């Protein structure tokens, strides 16, 4: 397997509306493995994915995918690069006016000139891979949350991408749906050799499938390594996140004025 | 809703739009294809054209026989010179007919009424009316009446 | 004092940047037209949603406005004994003014708000972002067909509005109130010119079509992707479109019929 990393972020700084979200993030994501990017809510994990996809540009620093510097690509080259990426959005983002079948067929219809019966075969294969071949005629509104995500997953692998990014795939799923997704992500990585980037704050599920994980907090990477290495990590902040302790280096209280100024000196 | 039904409905929609445009062109603005070739032009000079304007109608005995193309000032005689286009089917207007400016109703538009003469020779393309009668000017009538003349 | 100045400046900057975004948006969407695979089919789909579905409200409003014009015109004109001028009055009013303007206002309320809400919702549910990630330009895929459909549908709707309105006026004037049909039509034909009135009305409605669909699609595209943001954007679409239509109508009327 090609040893060069698939995605490299170098000293990325990102600020929006005067708030610094990333303050010098550097990480490299290996090819053909499952990497998890974890961290508390609101640390800009989704923003990170959007920068890899070129939807957002960093304020400074470099974002390289396959050796190409994403923020500097022209419109055409960027769209061509995106054809090799799949992304699973948190909400699934299925097109509400198209059936399940047409949703999965959509990227094929737009990007290829394949004949209809070939598109049909590919779509059914992808739907089979997520176990929803029987749901092809349903509309997105008729699907449950877990099914929506599976259809969206089938759609994002329709073009056989080299890289797939999952934005919070486990958020708000029941345990069975979560188990299905975990199995799917693992199978896809194994059978297709997909580089998988997983953004999540669900520690046990992510650790059960990822080869490598990064923990982000306060705009920087505070820990990285295999799940086992991270469990042994010395940083208090990492341990607080992994074990879900309510108070620690990340305080329970949002910064607030002194109690006395709010309530007065009550005995 | 199949794609085909949608396409047919959109097709009908576009046809309805074209039909509406055709209706506005032919029935409402009276645009008749090829009408221009079927007319001949005569002129009439008036001392006072009043509210006569282009596109006004020209009638004989109350029937529309043509329309006014333009009304301009003749810089030599300081008269208003109206260019009239008469339908080619009306080809025997006596050459001593006169053109009279009339008003339809009290506030209606002004039009030219051709008062038929007795001469045998018809008017031809480019001819000028021998006699005309200018617009009835209400203010002048009232002031004449008031001063007792 | 300086606070007020700063606020004014900030407001001006926001306005300018919105205008800039709207301009970039329009050029980005129109530059490629709806090409791509199946672009024509997308256009047809939007023409159906924008044009065909707005037909009912346009026809009904046109009919009633024409009938009201007939009734009002008759009562006034019959005082002066020139009720045959009713045809001229109805036709000129509809073709020059009410046809394009009322159609545009109805369009903003019926199709414009729906466009904004639809695109806003697509943004909120990440459908636009997922299009982008699939290597499909949402400007071309989502915005362009809707814009073109608006440009085409508005003049068609306005023509239908005027035609139906004139027919409604005739219904009241001729069939009900007894104005002589021949003079009804001849007074109309002698005063309505194809180029000066019908074509100018058509140009007006084309301009309104561009402005209304631009505002609607841009507001949807630029909205804050939350339910409050979408509802605010929908309101803005209707308000801005109506104001733009009425303001532009004055300018266009002055240029076309004002003799400048």
User: What is the helix fraction of residues of chain A, given as a range?
Assistant: 25-40%
Helix content of chain B: 10-25%
Question: What's the count of strands of chain B?
Answer: 7
What is the 3D form of chain B? elongated
| Radius of gyration of chain B over all CA atoms, rounded | 22 Å
What is the 3D shape of chain A? globular
Summarize the structure.
Helices cover 23% and strands 32% of the residues of chain B. Chain B has 149 residues and is α/β, with parallel strands linked by helices. Chain C has one domain (2-257).
Explain this structure to me?
- The complex is a heterotrimer of chains A (267), B (149) and C (260).
- With 267 residues, chain A is an alpha/beta fold.
- In chain A, 36% of the residues lie in helices and 23% in strands.
- Chain A has 10 helices and 10 strands.
- Chain A has helices at 45-52, 75-82, 100-111, 116-129, 145-156, 175-192, 203-209, 227-231, 236-243, 259-263; strands spanning 7-16, 19-29, 34-38, 60-65, 68-69, 85-88, 163-167, 195-200, 212-217, 220-225.
- In chain A, the strands form 2 sheets. A 6-stranded mixed sheet of chain A has the order 6-7-8-3-9-10, sandwiched between helices.
- In chain A, helix 3 packs across helix 4, helix 3 packs parallel to helix 5 (145-156) and helix 4 crosses helix 5 (145-156).
- The longest helix of chain A has 18 residues, at 175-192.
- The radius of gyration of chain A is 20 Å and the shape is globular.
- With 149 residues, chain B is of the alpha/beta class.
- Chain B has 2 domains: 1-36; 39-143, no CATH class.
- Chain B contains 2 helices and 7 strands; from the N terminus they run H-E-E-E-E-E-E-E-H.
- Chain B has a 7-stranded mixed sheet with strand order 1-4-3-2-6-5-7, with no helix packed on it.
- Chain B is elongated.
- Chain C has one domain (2-257).
- The longest helix of chain C has 41 residues, at 39-79.
- Chain C is elongated and about 65 Å long.
- Chain B binds chain C through residues 3, 6-7, 9-10, 12-14, 16-17, 19-21, 23-25, 27-31, 55-57, 64, 67, 104-109, 111, and chain C through 41, 44-45, 47-48, 51-52, 55, 77, 80-82, 84-85, 88, 91, 95, 153, 155-157, 159-160, 162-164, 166, 185-194, 197-198, 202.
């Amino acid at each position: 397997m090609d040893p060069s990393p698939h995605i490299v972020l170098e000293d990325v700084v990102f600020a929006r509306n005067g708030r610094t979200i990333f303050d010098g993030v550097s990480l490299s994501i290996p090819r053909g493995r499952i990497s998890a990017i974890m961290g508390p809510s609101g640390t800009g994990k989704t923003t990170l994915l959007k920068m890899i996809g070129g939807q957002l540009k960093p304020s400074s620093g470099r974002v390289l995918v396959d050796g190409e510097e994403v923020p500097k690509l022209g419109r055409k080259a960027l769209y061509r690069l995106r054809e090799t990426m799949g992304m699973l959005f948190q909400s699934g983002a299925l097109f509400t006016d198209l059936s399940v079948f047409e949703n999965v067929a959509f990227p094929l219809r737009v990007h290829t000139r394949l004949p209809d019966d070939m598109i049909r075969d590919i779509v059914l294969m992808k739907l089979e891979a997520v176990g929803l071949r029987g749901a092809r005629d349903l509309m997105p509104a008729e699907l449950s949350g877990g099914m929506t995500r599976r259809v969206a997953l089938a759609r994002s692998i329709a073009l056989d991408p080299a890289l797939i990014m999952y934005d919070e795939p486990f958020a708000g799923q029941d345990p069975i749906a979560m188990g299905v997704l975990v199995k799917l992500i693992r199978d896809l990585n194994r059978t297709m050799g997909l580089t998988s980037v997983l953004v999540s704050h669900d520690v046990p599920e992510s650790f059960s499938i990822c080869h490598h994980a990064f923990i982000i907090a306060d705009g920087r990477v505070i820990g990285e390594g295999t799940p086992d290495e991270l469990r042994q990590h010395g940083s208090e902040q990492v341990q607080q996140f992994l074990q879900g302790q309510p108070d620690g280096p990340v305080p329970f209280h949002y910064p607030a004025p002194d109690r006395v100024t709010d309530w007065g000196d009550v005995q | 809703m199949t794609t085909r039904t949608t396409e047919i409905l959109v097709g009908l929609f576009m046809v309805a739009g074209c039909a509406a445009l055709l209706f506005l062109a032919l029935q409402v603005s009276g645009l008749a294809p090829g009408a221009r070739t079927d007319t001949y032009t005569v002129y009439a000079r008036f001392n006072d054209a009043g509210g006569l304007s282009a596109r006004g109608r020209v009638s004989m005995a109350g029937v529309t026989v043509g329309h006014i193309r333009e009304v301009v000032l003749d810089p030599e005689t300081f008269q208003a010179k109206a260019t009239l286009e008469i339908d080619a089917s009306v080809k025997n207007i006596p050459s001593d007919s006169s053109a009279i400016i009339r008003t339809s109703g009290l506030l209606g538009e002004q039009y030219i009424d051709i008062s038929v003469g007795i001469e045998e020779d018809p008017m031809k393309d480019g001819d000028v009316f021998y006699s005309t009668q200018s617009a009835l000017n209400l203010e002048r009538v009232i002031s004449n009446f008031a001063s007792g003349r | 004092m300086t606070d007020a100045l700063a606020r004014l400046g900030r407001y001006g900057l926001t306005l300018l940047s919105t205008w800039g975004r709207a301009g970039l948006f329009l050029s980005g969407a129109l530059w490629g037209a709806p090409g791509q695979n199946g672009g024509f089919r997308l256009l047809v789909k939007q023409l159906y949603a924008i044009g065909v579905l707005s037909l009912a409200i346009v026809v009904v409003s046109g009919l009633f406005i024409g009938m009201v014009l007939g009734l009002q015109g008759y009562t006034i004109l019959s005082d002066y004994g020139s009720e045959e001028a009713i045809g001229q009055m109805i036709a000129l009013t509809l073709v020059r003014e009410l046809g394009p303007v009322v159609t545009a206002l109805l369009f903003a309320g019926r199709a414009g708000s729906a466009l904004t809400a639809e695109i806003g919702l697509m943004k909120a549910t990440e459908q636009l972002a997922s299009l982008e990630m699939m290597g499909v330009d949402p400007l071309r895929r989502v915005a362009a067909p809707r814009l073109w459909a608006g440009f085409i549908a508005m003049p068609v709707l306005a023509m239908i509005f005027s035609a139906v309105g004139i027919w409604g006026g005739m219904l009241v004037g001729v069939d009900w109130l007894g104005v002589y049909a021949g003079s009804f039509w001849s007074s109309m034909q002698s005063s309505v010119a194809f180029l000066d009135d019908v074509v100018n009305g058509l140009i007006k409605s084309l301009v309104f079509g561009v402005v209304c669909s631009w505002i609607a699609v841009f507001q949807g595209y630029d909205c804050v992707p939350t339910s409050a943001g979408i509802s605010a954007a929908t309101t803005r679409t209707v308000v801005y479109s109506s104001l733009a239509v009425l303001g532009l109508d004055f300018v266009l009327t002055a240029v076309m019929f004002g003799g400048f």
